[in-house]
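for the recovery benchmark. C-alpha cells below, seq after
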C-alpha cells in the first residue's frame, strides 16, 4: 500500500492569492469548503480586494473545473446590452442584431459564470436572473424557445445589498438566492499583516518584468506602507510598487515612489485614530514649503487642496456612495455633489 499524500490545510493560501492574516485564512477555508458544492456564492468586498481571484479559485477547486469560466461585469453595460450579453439574442431582435448571439449563460453551461458588480443590475434583469437561479432556464432576447442550462453562479458586489434592498434597488428574493454562501473580503487596512508579503510579491513580479534584481523591502518603507489606509486596497498597493520599479534608474529602487501620493509630510494619512488637526497642520506646512513665496490666492489654493485631499480619502472609504460620504463628512448631500462636480468627479446619486 502506498502512503496517502497529506491533504492541504483548508486555510492554506489559494493559488494567486497572497496573504496569511487571520482574516484571509478564514476566506481561504470558506472558499475551499464551498467550492465542492453547487451552492451560489456572493463575494462581498470593496473595489480592489481581489473578488475575481476568489471566484476563479471557487471554479478551479470545484467539480466544474474542466468546464468554462465566464466573467461578466454587470456595471459596464447598459440594461439592453447586458440582457443580450447574458442571455443572447436572435437575428432581428433589435436594431443592430444582424445575427444570432449566444449569451454568457449558455457559454458557461457545465461551468461557472461570475457576475461582478451585481448590485448595478436593473430590476428587469434581476427578475430574469432569479428565474435562471430557480428554474435553470431562460429565453434569448426576441425568441420564445426556452433554453435550459447547468451553470453555477458566483456573484460579487462592493455594496451592502441589504442597504440596496432597503432602498428598493435590489430584490430581496434574488438576494437570498445569491447569498447562499457569502464570502466577505476584508479591505487591506483590516489585514495589515499582509501588506509586507503583498508588497514583496509585487516587487518581485515587476522587477522580473523589468529585468531588475529584486531588493529587500526596507523596514522604514514597510512601516509607512503599513500606516496607510489603502482606500484602493490591494490594487492600489500594486500600483505604487509597479510605479516605484518603473520610475527607478540604475540598480536601486526609488523607494520614495512607492509611498502613497496622499502622504503628508512623509507620513501617510491614516483615517483611524490619528490626530486630524496635526495632519491638517502638516499638510499646510508642506504646501507652504513647496509653493512659491509670491503665490497668488494662497488661502483659496490651500483650502481647495485640503478639501480635495479629504474627499479623495473619504469617497473610497464610503464606496463612492454619495449619501454615505455626506453622512461621514457631516455635510449636505447636495453640497458634496456640487464640490465633487467642481473637482470633475461624476458620481451617481446613490
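predicted aa per position
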Amino acid at each position: 500500500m502506498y502512503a496517502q499524500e497529506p491533504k492541504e490545510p483548508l486555510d492554506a493560501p489559494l493559488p494567486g492569492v497572497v496573504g496569511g492574516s487571520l482574516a484571509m485564512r478564514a476566506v481561504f477555508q470558506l472558499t475551499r469548503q464551498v467550492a465542492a458544492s453547487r451552492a451560489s456564492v456572493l463575494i462581498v468586498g470593496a473595489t480592489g480586494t481581489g473578488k475575481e481571484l476568489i471566484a476563479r479559485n471557487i471554479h478551479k477547486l470545484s467539480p466544474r473545473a474542466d468546464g468554462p469560466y465566464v466573467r461578466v461585469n454587470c456595471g459596464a453595460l447598459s440594461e439592453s446590452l447586458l440582457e443580450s450579453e447574458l442571455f443572447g439574442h436572435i437575428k432581428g431582435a433589435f436594431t443592430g442584431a444582424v445575427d444570432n448571439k449566444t449569451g454568457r449563460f449558455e457559454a458557461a453551461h457545465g461551468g461557472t459564470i461570475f457576475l461582478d458588480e451585481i448590485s448595478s443590475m436593473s430590476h428587469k434583469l434581476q427578475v430574469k436572473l432569479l428565474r435562471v437561479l430557480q428554474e435553470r432556464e431562460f429565453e434569448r432576447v426576441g425568441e420564445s424557445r426556452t433554453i435550459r442550462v447547468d451553470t453555477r453562479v458566483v456573484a460579487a458586489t462592493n455594496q451592502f445589498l441589504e442597504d440596496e434592498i432597503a432602498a428598493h434597488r435590489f430584490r430581496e428574493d434574488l438576494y437570498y438566492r445569491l447569498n447562499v454562501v457569502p464570502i466577505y473580503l476584508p479591505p487591506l487596512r483590516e489585514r495589515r499583516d499582509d501588506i509586507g508579503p503583498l508588497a514583496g510579491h509585487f516587487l518581485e513580479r515587476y522587477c522580473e518584468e523589468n529585468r531588475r534584481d529584486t531588493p529587500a523591502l526596507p523596514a522604514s518603507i514597510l512601516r509607512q506602507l503599513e500606516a496607510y489606509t489603502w482606500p484602493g486596497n490591494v490594487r492600489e498597493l500594486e500600483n505604487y510598487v509597479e510605479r516605484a520599479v518603473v520610475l527607478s534608474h540604475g540598480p536601486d529602487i526609488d523607494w520614495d515612489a512607492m509611498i502613497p501620493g496622499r502622504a503628508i509630510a512623509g507620513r501617510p494619512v491614516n483615517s483611524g485614530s490619528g490626530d486630524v488637526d496635526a495632519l491638517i497642520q502638516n499638510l499646510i506646512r508642506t504646501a507652504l514649503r513647496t509653493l512659491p513665496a509670491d503665490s497668488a490666492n494662497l488661502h483659496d489654493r490651500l483650502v481647495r487642496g485640503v478639501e480635495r485631499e479629504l474627499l479623495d480619502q473619504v469617497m473610497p472609504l464610503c464606496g463612492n456612495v454619495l449619501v454615505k460620504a455626506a453622512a461621514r463628512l457631516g455635510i449636505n448631500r447636495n453640497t458634496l455633489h456640487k464640490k465633487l462636480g467642481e473637482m470633475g468627479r461624476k458620481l451617481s446619486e446613490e
